[in-house]
Amino acid sequence: MLKGYEEYMDTGYDWIPQVPKTWEQRPIHSITTLSNERNGKRKDLELLSVYREFGVIKKSSRDDNHNVESQDLSNYKYVNSGYLVMNKMKMWQGSLGISQYEGIVSPAYIVCKVDQDIIGKYLHYLLRSSHFKIFYNRISYGVRVGQWDLRYNDLKNLKIYLPTSDEQNQIVRYLNAKVAKINRLISAKKKEIALLKEYKQAIITRAVTKGICAGVPMKESGVEWIGEIPEGWEERKLKYLCSINTGDKDTINRNDDGLYPFYVRSPKIEHIDTYSFDGEAVLMAGDGVGAGKVFHYVSGKFDYHQRVYNLHYFKDVCGKYIYYYLKENFWRKIEEASAKSTVDSVRLPMLLEFPVVFGQIGEQQQIVSYLDAKCSAIDATIQKRELAIEKLTAYNQSLIYECVTGKVDVRGIHVEEVPEAELIEEMDEEIVAEFDDETSEEENTE
Question: How many CA atoms lie within 13 A of 319 on its CB side?
Fold first, then answer.
């Protein structure tokens, strides 16, 4: 177990009460210089962005960054490797970092040069550590959280505590090695989760298009992407199997203390004071980020958004069977048909004309029971992996905080140096893994 330093001194901050007595107190303005250098006519600089998870990254490394840059980039701020970059609207979330790249950022960002006697990576770890977010939160201002702002003038008098350059370098070496190891473990867990989700998808798709009984005679379904189906099955358009309508409520109607579930265009379940439906239903987002996604199978009293499709009054099919069938097939097929990575909206004819293959009710019920059991087991395994990631992430944050605030002393501990290029490569891999995981989970879009 790591030990602390011999003596500590009070800082006057409730969020970092004490630091080692030998560390030097420095206000932010004494180690940084505000930079307003613009891109001008340069055409070859990489567009950068700031993420709370990673710090400063290449915008091109994230396919989920939908912020549209200006056609005229001349006013964008210039960033060199080693500069401190802050997203002033999201500082309270930890959206800042020392850049490892040369490039340009939005004019709305705060950009600072850092004194050469400060180890940039140490400052990166320090300013992004968990407890500093408490301070950023306090000095941010605005009408509501999503529109908060922060000024350099509010930040510049923050006092930080720095060890000697040699000690900074040792702390950086130690954290680089530990963080790299933790990130590899997290990436491995995320890959396991991705494989489990693929496995779950394959199980569902096969069960609702081929059945769960081996060796049965097969026939052509007449639907190209489905191929063969069991001989006793049939194919019908969805419009012949259920009724479909949309809700008449909007997000303004929700009430956190409401008695009834209120289904919007995301996996999140809101609440409302009224209900407009009582029965079995499959609910699909009609537009937004989750357009075409089937998020819910429900039974009972509830209300639903005006752009949520309610499939109900099922004929010759089980509602839960339709839930599984559409959950894995519908949105993928409409994306393929649209030749786009996302679908803006689902029109009613798309649903009505969608082909469904199915067997007798008894066989559907067997398939549903089979999938309930399989999916429950897979989801439990995924949940364990996600919990492991949460614990690793929390440990990572705690370790960084303890090292850069002197709660533990890592002087004299031998660590293998991790090359900077390897750190950048691992961060890029972590970004990809994070994106791959996020794309399988929809944002709370209402």
Answer: 16
Q: Where are the beta strands (DSSP E) in 196-238?
A: 218-220, 228-230, 234-237
Q: Read off the pTM.
A: 0.81
Contact 77, 111 (CB under 8 A): yes
Which residue bears the tokens 């489990």?
196
**Number of Cβ atoms within 10 Å of the Cβ of 434:** 18
Those residues whose C-beta lies under 8 Å from the C-beta of residue 186, and which sit 6 or more positions away, are: 389, 392, 393, 430, 433
3-state secondary structure of 270: strand
Per-residue pLDDT tens digits for 30-56? 999 999 999 988 888 999 999 988 899
pLDDT reading at 10 higher than 80: yes
Residue of 246, 250, 286, 280 lying closest to 265 (CA atoms): 286
For the stretch 2-40, what's the b/e string if a residue is b when 16 or more beta carbons lie within 10 angstroms of its beta carbon?
eeebeebeebebeebebbbeebeebebeebbeebeeebe
pLDDT band at 427 (very low <50, low <70, confident <90, very high): low
| CB neighbour class for 105 (10 Å; exposed up to 12, middle 13-18, buried from 19) | buried
Instruction: Enter the tokens of residue 249.
Output: 């409520």
Domain spans of the chain, in order of start: 24-162
Cβ–Cβ < 8 Å for 77, 104:
yes
Asked if 444 contacts 263 with a C-beta cutoff of 8 angstroms, the reply is no
Q: Are 331 and 343 within 8 A, CB to CB?
A: yes
User: pLDDT tens for residues 342-398?
Assistant: 567 889 999 999 999 999 999 999 999 999 999 999 999 999 999 999 999 999 999
Where does the pLDDT of residue 428 fall: very low under 50, low under 70, confident under 90, or very high at 90 and above?
A: low
Closest of 433, 429, 410, 434 to residue 125, by C-alpha? 410
- Answer yes or no: are the C-beta atoms of 210 and 230 closer than 8 Å: yes
pLDDT for the residue 62: 65
Top CATH class of 24-162 equals: alpha beta
- Evaluate the CA torsion angle 252, 258, 261, 267 in order and state its sign: positive
